[in-house]
């Protein structure tokens, strides 16, 4: 076997988030473009140096970005939406597309496949006339060649199928646009060849999704097959490595890809079942096989026994002649979904009682894993065991010794019955018993109120130990009192405490549960300059104390109106964390659900009559293949119901969802059996609401009456109009009035003005009923 090592993408914010800070300074006009680019280039060059030092034979380059790689391709392919075309300067246009400008709304963002990274969604209509704009890309590739050599630097190109497949298409067909774009790609490949490059990675992750099946003909046209040469593989001087990730390939797509003229096919062997495909169908002898064997989305080190099993299967394929001798070991996907390095986690490393750091593996450590896997694979032949494998095995043994299974948690999971998942009474029976003091069209908010500098300062002082816990709580209680006072004064009906004690809706709960660990520097890019630091599930999850009761009690003591107990749902907590890899996501969700279930009971005991369980991330955990969606949605719904069904019939259970289109999982949303669903709606027209109606949603709904992402105060008439539209869809008894999402990012004056208008509009609409 001839085994090389390759990477297919790297983190790009910088070990110390240098790029984030430089971007923010540039936007505030504190540094020049040149200074911004200097920072960007030095981060990128450092990335190359690290990969080079780790012995990577071919390094994916050109994936670096100032904001988002899809947005870069929108610029490079000349597919900017027409509203930005008047902005001549490339950089200004680029950031305008990402962040908007007065009068020109930004492009939409959405999740990159099933990851937590957001990309800028291309918008393509019949006016789209692609044109090559590759100057800065080619400069970047030239810098990479200078640093790494033309054989080691492999440009990463987002393929046309993925680019168009992820776009919003308006009055145009996917295949027409792909055809239009092909010439631009051909032009790019010519330029790349002129630089002396001999291979490109064309990333086509769209092929693993259900959409891939509809692209067979386009695969042949672009990459060859069925007797066609393939437009993008027509020139022998430039080899194409077709890269897919995030799941396995469907058999027909696999056959199309294998039958193409590409020189290499790279696949994800950590998700889906590509290995079984190799065993049954083999792999063409004329191509290099890209073996994505190191999980690029897992923060955990590999499990030596599992990996050995896998490598034996690969070796078996090789021995039986099913796969060629040229193999490239690589991460399963770009490493930009991981933090930079475990070395920066001083606290975790010092915490030997936890034993966690030795089993963690971030981007830098994944590079070492690649070499370890190479060694593992070559040692298989001599059946000697590799030192690194032994070392990693010991680390895992140590970890399991220090963090044993919590048997009571598992006993509780096995004893879950169907009745634990259903409310004591049907909606029609329980609804009349709930919130009896809330008349028709009750007004409410989603949970958070403005997080002011004062609150942030307060939190910092508490964390650094400058103020005591009781002083901190006293200050938090003042904020709660203020929030309640504002809502009382505005005449809102169902109140919230305002979440001043929470930095983040997931981190807050993770900190209260036993079994979560936290990093100091484990940042991953969420979008643009925004990074998140997801908590790590390291052990079975348990609730040691109640988590939200104190703040609820404080708030409820200040008002006769109902205050919502405010919780983050199990699926969202899980999806926004780094999960364990050796325990199913379902079991982890159920563990969190059991903790939340106990919290709901405690809130009820403390007098809470309305519980809100937010699930904004329910949709984003959905698998990429249609046939896998039901299984996911089933356990996701079960986890939500396990958390909430314990509520008494008299307790009104709310949920809230946002950040996504929910129209393709309406059955699941209905199955949650929440009494009220306050759902983001303002930006999507009323499509969401209409889809709910069409699906026969019979419970209460709170479609967002205004968009909270903008500081603009909605006029009374705008909200009235919205409410009238809602009322044309559903009866007033079923309607709750609220904004689109939490108000934490807004300032107080606009918050008060907007809510006042919302209440006024509601009164006026009510008086006309
Ligand atoms: N209750 C949360 C808040 O209002 C919900 C946030 C969210 O949906 N992302 O902040
Ligand atoms: Zn929201």
UniProtKB/TrEMBL annotation:
Ranges of residues in domain Cobalamin-independent methionine synthase MetE C-terminal/archaeal: 441-763
EC nos: 2.1.1.14
Cofactor note: Binds 2 Zn(2+) ions per subunit.
Record-listed Zn(2+) 1 binding positions: 656, 680, 741
Amino-acid positions noted as binding L-methionine in the UniProt annotation, renumbered to this chain: 446-448, 499, 614
Source organism, top-level taxon: Eukaryota
Pathway: Amino-acid biosynthesis; L-methionine biosynthesis via de novo pathway; L-methionine from L-homocysteine (MetE route): step 1/1
Function recorded in the entry: Catalyzes the transfer of a methyl group from 5-methyltetrahydrofolate to homocysteine resulting in methionine formation.
Name recorded for this polypeptide: 5-methyltetrahydropteroyltriglutamate--homocysteine S-methyltransferase
